[in-house]
Amino acid sequence: MKKEVLNLSRRDLLRAAVAAIPAAGLLAQSRAPKGRIDVHHHLFPPGYLKEMEGEMKANGFAPRAWTPEISLDLMDKHDVATAMLSPVQRLVLDSMSEKNERSRKLVRINNDYNAQVVRDHPTRFGLMAALPLPDIDGSLKEIAYAYDTLKADGIALWTSYRDRWPGDPAFEPVFAELNRRKAVVFYHPAAGTCCRNLIQGLGISGIIEYDIDTARCAESMLYGGIPGKYPDIKFIFSHSGGALPTLAARIIDDYPKANLDRLPHGVEYEFKRFYYEVAHASKTAALDAVKDIAPISQILYGADVPLRSYELTNEGLDVYQGFSRADWEAIYRTNSERLFPRLKG
Length: 345
Ligand SMILES: [Zn+2]
Hints:
single chain; 345 residues; alpha/beta; TIM Barrel; eight-stranded parallel sheet; globular; binds zinc ion
């Protein structure tokens, strides 16, 4: 009996110690001296919602009211200085096809509104402009407009366009132009039409499909030699790379030898050059995996707000023990400052 009491007491002590770790972690890890930069943050332009209302409702996607102030309030509560805004999933994607005027219009509405938000709050928001891919001509025109007129910080692409992935040779003129612009490209996950509704009742799994599509996007680009041919583009993958980090070794081992001339430095080199943001993929397994394939300089903070809460990402980061204080500063801010130098301030 006495032993039992002693054991319980030890257990209680252990519990208390474990409970103290998040608090200690929070103090050490949640602050960046100049505030965090969140590279995965969505906007909902009112004109865009109006245009897409019917399709959104038909697809079970509830339109939501959004104002910059809603995001600013959340950012202030979570020590986020700047959020790089990108379009919300499914708003443009499914309406897109070759030379579709509506896609061009939706993309323009998104980009013009985003640019206005940035003009109103230049230090708090950034513009990751949408493109009407797979419309190549429309995308090239939008790249010029986004950079030359709107002063975009980067470009937001989907990991796939229905059943076409970015390594598709037809997309090459867009990557050639993005390379010339030394663009930062933020890849947001999508679900190919091949792989929706595979499990009855589940619909599109925003976890499995998006994370697999992220890996498929990277594999498609590597197969097509895009990072080797266009080395000045900086690619950011979402959610700690989705399934990519755990599949990386197999992709490296099985990469077709006949394609190696497309990647002069090899596949592993490109994994180390890609960037990975940690939104809702910040538990130990995800962070250990991404740390295994890329240096700290390539890991960025993102949270997928307002679709997800900051808490969902931060609760993993706040207790993770695998980064030093200098690493946290890099992840929360200075790695992103290198990508978006105007935020150095
Ligand atoms: Zn997102």
